[in-house]
Amino acid sequence: MGDKFVPAAEATISVRTMAFNSGWSVFEGIRAYWNEEEEQLFVFRLPEHLQRLHNSARILRMELPADIDEMVERCRSLLERNNLREDSYLRPIAYKGLPTKLGVNLLDAVDEFVAYCFPQGRYLPTERGLSVGVSSWVRIQDNAAPPRAKIGGTYVNPALAKTDSLLQGFDEALMLTSEGNVAEGSTSNLFLVVNGELVTPPSTEDILVGITRGTIMEIAEEEFGLKVRERVVDRSELYSVDEAFLCGTGAEVAAIGSVDGRRIGDGNIGPITRQLQEFYLDMVRGKNPKYRHWCTPVHTSAAGTSDRELSSTVAK
């Protein structure tokens, strides 16, 4: 706490913290991948994630405790101190702490920061086609609570959609905008394969502008010569596409096998989706020299420097 690395058990907050009381926080989910051959842990697109954290913080009128370069080093050091040598997950959170007075004024609370990490394998069963259902819960609007920012309190929206979908027997949910257009998955962006081209809803359709989404768009065009179109997607179009997949830091690249019980293709991972999935999973482990600059190495020595229970909390 207070610019110190501390054991996770000591990284406590007050019950009066506004992030706990009112959801006033912004966060990032960042993956780190273990490269067995090099015995190195690589964090994928760490500066880009932290830049988005800065952008989200500005929307909630928060200041982070350091610039991007310093934040990169703090996060890298956190992973190294935990001596993580397997696929892992990093979560930095900027949040409003103790209030100076009661109310809903974002200026009346202290800005705080915490980051922690833990081992993390697959988030979704990416080895098969997922069954997804279109949720009855509508995606939040930009003019209500902007989904382009990863705001803690707004994640009750996708949580309702995902939970209901699981109870209905689906693997994942797809959410529509208030106008009835397709937005995204509960916590992942959507791509369709239509006549050999990639189609994805634009940023104006109340989506989180995903870093993995941008990565897929770049490598699809650069490595596979695929045309990528950002356009409005109607719900009924989901039922007749050639392939579909979700992507995100957690989801990685996850094929969709069916939507609302209607099979997509043969219900398995389509050929374009599989190409992108395999290329992505190789790239994030630092195995592709062309994209090595997206991978931040963690370990500066063969041995770690602390135990696995550490958590970093930096309070401003």
TrEMBL record:
SUPFAM superfamilies: D-aminoacid aminotransferase-like PLP-dependent enzymes. InterPro entries: Aminotrans_IV (IPR001544), Aminotrans_IV_CS (IPR018300), Aminotransferase-like (IPR036038), B_amino_transI (IPR005785), BCAT-like_C (IPR043132), BCAT-like_N (IPR043131), Class-IV_PLP-Dep_Aminotrnsfr (IPR050571). Its EC number is 2.6.1.42. GO terms for molecular function: L-isoleucine-2-oxoglutarate transaminase activity; L-leucine-2-oxoglutarate transaminase activity; L-valine-2-oxoglutarate transaminase activity. Its cofactor is pyridoxal 5'-phosphate. Pfam families: Aminotran_4. The keyword Transferase applies. Keywords: Amino-acid biosynthesis, Aminotransferase, Branched-chain amino acid biosynthesis, Pyridoxal phosphate, Transferase. It is an enzyme of class 2 (transferase). It catalyses: L-isoleucine + 2-oxoglutarate = (S)-3-methyl-2-oxopentanoate + L-glutamate; L-leucine + 2-oxoglutarate = 4-methyl-2-oxopentanoate + L-glutamate; L-valine + 2-oxoglutarate = 3-methyl-2-oxobutanoate + L-glutamate. GO terms for biological process: isoleucine biosynthetic process; L-leucine biosynthetic process; L-valine biosynthetic process. Acts on leucine, isoleucine and valine. NCBIfam families: ilvE_I, PRK06606.1. Belongs to the class-IV pyridoxal-phosphate-dependent aminotransferase family. PANTHER family: AMINO-ACID AMINOTRANSFERASE, BRANCHED-CHAIN-AMINO-ACID AMINOTRANSFERASE-RELATED. This is Branched-chain-amino-acid aminotransferase.
